[in-house]
Write a structure and sequence with these properties.
Layout (H helix, E strand, L loop, with lengths): L2 H7 L10 E5 L5 E4 L9 E4 L3 E4 L5 H4 L8 E3 L6 E3 L1 H10 L5 H8 L12
Antiparallel strand pairs: 1-2, 3-4, 5-6
Helix pairs in contact: 1-4
Length: 118
């Protein structure tokens, strides 16, 4: 599944100003996540009720269709972000874009991935 599709499929409420919030749900995962947070499939709760992604894989490994590197100018306020992930946080927290709006923007960074094993 592409990163933009994961964002569109997210059913949990959106979190702001942090990766994730709330008590663990029945699946052991947070009840609210930010746009970048929903891209990680697993989460861990640390002491002090702090959620962190289970960094088994980094986003470029999970979603190879995205060109993650580069300097990005925010199309709303022209702030600079270093990479797509930082800009996702910015759009989520500063401009309160929805998962769907961020998914639309993220599609502009998708590239074709060729499977060299076939």
């Amino acid at each position: 599944m592409k990163a933009s599709e994961v964002l569109r499929a997210e059913k949990r409420p959106q979190a702001f100003d942090g990766w994730a919030e709330g008590e663990p749900g029945p699946d052991g995962q947070p009840e609210r996540v930010c746009a970048a947070g929903c891209l990680w499939p697993k989460w861990m709760m640390l002491p002090g009720d702090k959620w962190v992604p289970d960094f088994v894989n980094e986003l470029p490994i999970l979603y190879p269709e995205i060109k993650w590197d580069g300097i990005i100018h925010c199309q709303v306020c022209f702030a600079l972000a270093v990479g797509v992930e930082e800009q996702i946080f910015h759009l989520n927290d500063e401009h309160r874009w929805t998962f769907g709006e961020i998914a639309d923007w993220l599609e502009t960074f998708e590239v074709e991935v060729v499977d060299a094993t076939h």
